[in-house]
Amino acid sequence: MKLSKDVVLEYMQKQVLATQEEVHFTTQQLSEALQMQRSNLSKLLNELAKENRVKKTNGRPVYYSLVKEKDQSCFQTMIGSDGSLKQTVQLIKAALMYPGHSLPLLITGPDGSGKSLLAKLIYEYAKENHVIDDEAPFVKINCKYLAEESNEKIRDIFLSEEFGAMKRAQGGVLFIDHINRLYHDIQNLLLNYVEMAQNSSSNMILVYSIDDSINPSYLSLYRSKFSVVIDLPSLANRTFEERLDLIQLFFQKEVECIHKNIKINSEVLRCLMLYPCQLNIKQLRMDIQLGCANGYARNFDKEDSQIELNIHDFPNYVRKGFLSYRKYRTQIEQIIPDNYLYSFSSQEMNASQDENAIASDDNYYNMIDRKVEELKSHGVEDQDIMTILHADLDYGFQKLNSNIEQKEIDKDIIAKVVDPKIIGLVDQFLKDASIRFDRIYSNSVFYGMCLHLSAMIERQGTSQKMTNEQIVTAIKMYNEEYIFCSKFTSLLEKEFDIKIAIDEVVFLSMFISREQIEEIQEPKPVVLVAMHGNSTASSIVEVANTLVNEGNIFSFDLSLDKDMQKVYEELSETIVEIHQGKGILMLYDMGSLKTMAEMISKETGINIKTFCIPATLIALDCSRKASCHNSLDDIYNDVMNSYQSMYPEIEQSYQKQEKPQVIISLCMTGDGAAVQIKNYIEQHVYLENTEIIPMAISDHEYLLKKVNQIQKNQKVICVIGVYDPKLYGIPYIPISKLFDTSPDKLELLLSSSSVESVMSVNYDAIYEYLKEELVGFDFDLLKEVLPKTIMKIRKVTHGLSSDQEVGLFMHLACATYRLQNDERSTRNVNAKELISKNKRLYNDLCEVLSLIEDEFYIKFDDNEIAYIIQIIKKC
Fold first, then answer.
1. CA-based angle 817:818:824, to the nearest 5?
2. Mean pLDDT computed over 295-313
């Protein structure tokens, strides 16, 4: 029999689980709900408070609430229960502890994502919390194995009064896996049980699962039948930390089987972290099992207590992880650093420094040679080796630049540690390099070169030696840069009376020739052009890359004489290779390409959308018409009537008429201040031969990449925005100065080579301008609320500059307008980090922004608040 104290605690727990929020109870509420005397109940609650199981407030009335405890349930054993699956676990608990009776659950997710494991944990949790008895049955029916059975036999399996699953699961849990594989009439019958169980107490807990790859209409039907739907993510959508935990778990299970510890190097572990698993967690487990089995067989007759696995012990497709290494290098390096070995015992994973690794960063080139030899000895192919090699070279340069940027050196400070003569030479060198190679460099490149050359001159020109092969390869790859740097180093030799080694010339050549650090952003969708013909798609993609140069469009040429099975295999390989995790838009001309794309999508799990551009069909149709008509006018009119309205807007959007000069208008979020700045300038001044390009970018490295793309064909004369991007040699105009300058003087301002910030703000001009741009906005209310908000932000931040004020003003006005019109906030990839580092400011902003939220009936999410923090912190 339960103690009264346990009855009270269990009731409070059920209420919390049902609402998914912290619930406050009074003695009166609990007394009425539990039919207990208030005096007895008060005593019980005080005992629970002393045991630190509930907490109570001061004052009258007294409120009691549960003390939050760390999850000690069986779900704690599930990887991701405190991460990507945290909300999933809370939802399951709420369903099982629902007052009166547990609710049926539907689990969706791709094959191999862990649906069966989750169903078993649901059963264990129900026993832990006395929802069902300890001896209650767990009955699982996998409908995959019923595909060949007759309708009558399947009915008996579920509904037979003697041995049916419904009978055997009484008082326990019935798990029907892959219910979508059954006949439709059986599915409907089983769904009727769900409806009954949701509306009244049931003598069993129903758990159904379906594959999320089924027809969307069927998926929607299933979801509508259940009050509680659990969506399990694919392995690709789990965090890297969770994938590493899974890898560790699977290796530990293999250690228990073979009774030997297992060791792998960082390259193998990175491949396991990055290669695509079509069958998700299930495939990852099976591939690790196979790798361990191969390693065990190879070391079967050895007495060692540990076996070392190499990349060739695993299936060949695991090596595809190399192909994603550059893309996810930053995240992977944080959890799997270079030059470590990882050993697995039955209890833990240990990382230790590789004794063969060279500790000093100065021996970088020797380390590259050693890594090449090591990878070759393990059977890694040359192409994969080169992928790793290039990633390591980029990472070395990235480390140098990031270290410089973290120091936030300015010219006055650097002059204290670097000879002013070096500063002047580097300044002129980078200006000349910018003109010679049409490339903009960041401030960190300037600082980095000053410090590097200063150290090199102190060493009298000596440097770490590169191999002859490395020198020859680098000179071939960066020939023009090498010649340019040779002249510069000759000047240095004369100025400082030293001899500079060729290694240094090569290093400088690579340093200034790099496309800046790869864009570190969330994966994005890519475009695939698939057309009939030997080079139709290739030619279209070539033109697109020439005009746009985003690197996100790829081609697939379908030769007319090629076997269709071969075409299918090649198209599938192309799709898997170019996929970046966010799906593919495939443009096709005709025929079976759409069907093949749909089949590949189901087979690989890659989301593919198709869009028909029937250029080939139009050509065929025109050819047919030309053979039937004698009049050119008849053919022309016929074609125009058929196809005239198809693509005029697309064509007009991409008629590229580049102007020689560019002004960049800059903000940190979507359709915000950048577009408004552009519109304001175009309304008030005519700039001949000058294009204004709005950019919503907060990532400095990505901005640098985009500016360099523009600089290849056009000259960037200035940047106008809410923050200073610190681009070397490009003037910055604060947004406050733009709006504070009278329209008749704007042309003079924008042609000035250097600009300074101003401290007075003319908000009337901004209001007047925004009235024309933000149609239907309540500006009277904005004038009342926004200044108060800015004033409060100024107070909590202890002051703002004028350009910060204007930046916040424009951002908040545009953001409020967007949110009122139900437009989503642009995702801020740095939101979590910014909020974590500025927690106090974040909390203050949440309170301050409630002024706007209450008046305009909107809600600023964390993405918007992170952008506001960036404006305030100038980061």
1. 160
2. 84
Residue 609 resides in a domain: no
- Is residue 108 very low, low, confident or very high in pLDDT (cuts 50, 70, 90)? very high
The position carrying tokens 């800046």 is 516
Contact 291, 314 (CB under 8 A): yes
Asked if 15 and 34 count as a contact pair (C-beta separation under 8 A), the reply is no
Q: Can you tell me the distance from the alpha carbon of 603 to that of 605, in angstroms, rounded to the nearest whole number?
A: 6
Per-residue three-class SS string for 143-208? HHHHCCCCHHHHHHHHHCCCCCHHHHCCCCEEEEECHHHCCHHHHHHHHHHHHHHHHCCCCCEEEE
Q: Are residues 55 and 98 in the same domain?
A: no
Looking at the fold, whether 46 and 86 belong to one and the same domain comes out as no
- Of 670, 728, 663, nearest in space to 516 by CA: 728
Per-state percent for the chain, helix, strand, coil, to nearest 5: 55, 10, 30
In a domain, 367, yes or no: yes
pLDDT, tens only, 474-495? 787 878 888 888 889 888 888 8
Highest mean pLDDT among 253-267, 299-313, 753-767, 816-830: 253-267
830 and 727 assigned to the same domain: no
Amino acid type, 820: Q
CB-facing half-sphere around the CA of 252: CA atoms within 13 A: 12
Nearest to 714 by CA among 658, 649, 676: 658
The least confident of 182-196, 300-314, 647-661 is: 647-661
pTM: 0.43
Please name the residues in contact with 30: beta carbons below 8 A apart, sequence gap of 6 or more. 8, 11, 12, 36, 41, 45, 64
Q: Is the pLDDT of residue 375 over 80?
A: no
Domain containing residue 169: 80-233
593 domain residue, yes or no: no
Domain boundary, last residue among 66, 89, 118? 66
**pLDDT tens, residue by residue, 64-80:** 888 765 556 788 888 88
Which amino acid is residue 737, in one-letter code?
A: K
Number of domains into which the chain is organized: 6
More confident residue, 215 or 529: 529
CATH classification of the domain holding 58: 1.10.10.10
**Domain final residue pick, 203, 233, 263:** 233
* β-bridge mates for residue 65, sequence order: 55
Contacts of 120 by beta carbon, 8 Å cutoff, 6+ apart = 138, 175
Is position 849 within any domain? yes
The pLDDT score that the predictor gives to residue 251 is 93
Task: Return the SS3 of 515.
Answer: coil
158 and 171 together in one domain = yes
Q: What is the mean pLDDT of the chain?
A: 79
Q: CB within 8 A of 713, min separation 6: which ones?
A: 438, 658
Q: What is the pLDDT of residue 434?
A: 80
HSE of 867 in the Cβ direction (CA atoms, 13 Å)?
26
Q: Are 229 and 241 in the same domain?
A: no
Domain co-membership, 102 together with 121: yes
Residue with tokens 């049926």: 104
Q: Verify that 98 and 223 share a domain, yes or no.
A: yes
Q: Distance between CA atoms of 721 and 699, rounded to whole angstroms?
A: 14
Q: 534: pLDDT confidence band, cut at 50, 70 and 90?
A: confident
Cα separation values, 621 from 532, 540, 573, Å: 15, 21, 32
* Residue scoring higher pLDDT (330 or 85): 85
Q: Using an 8 Å Cβ cutoff, are 668 and 811 in contact? A: yes
Percent of the chain with pLDDT strictly greater than 70:
82
Amino acid at 839: K
What are 306's strand-pairing partners? 261
Token couple for 597: 């794309």
Residue with tokens 């099976």: 286
pLDDT, residue 213, reads 77
Claim to verify: residue 292 and residue 156 sit in the same structural domain: no
Q: d(Cα 533, Cα 557) in Å, to the nearest integer? A: 6
Please count the helices (runs of H) and the strands (runs of E) in the chain.
38, 19
Q: Of 190-204, 478-492, 645-659, which range is least confident?
A: 645-659
